[in-house]
Amino acid sequence: MRGTKETIAASQIAQNAGATTISLYVEKSALLDYSDYQIKYESLALDESRIERVNSSIGQYWSMYCYERIK
């Protein structure tokens, strides 16, 4: 999925406000122009055999990683 216009705008606003932005993506899009870090993931629509590299798995991993670092 490509970044929607709303997601791209939100990332741009966040980055302009000084936030660090991270984007998960399947295909490159304008969203990456406003992302400090880009993480490519695999789409379940293309391959259901590997779930460790899908967006929800990556998002959950990084959420828990950040939580453990700040608690």
Commentary on this structure:
The chain has 71 residues and is α+β, with helices and mostly antiparallel strands. It is built from two helices and two strands. The chain has helices at residues 5-16, 55-70; strands at residues 22-25, 37-40. A two-stranded parallel sheet has the order 1-2. The radius of gyration is 13 Å and the shape is flat. The termini are far apart. The mean pLDDT is 86.
Keywords:
two-stranded parallel sheet; flat; single chain; 71 residues; alpha+beta
Strand content: 5-15%
Strand order of the largest sheet: 1-2
Poorly predicted sequence stretches spanning 5 or more consecutive residues:
none
User: Which structural class is indicated by helix and strand composition?
Assistant: alpha+beta
> Fraction of residues in helices?
25-40%
What can be said about the biggest beta sheet?
2 strands, parallel
The SSE order reads HEEH
- How many strands? 2
- The first-to-last residue Cα distance is 33 Å
Topology at a glance:
Blueprint: H1 5-16, E1 22-25, E2 37-40, H2 55-70
Parallel strand pairs: 1-2
Quick overview of this protein structure:
It contains two helices and two strands, in the order H-E-E-H.
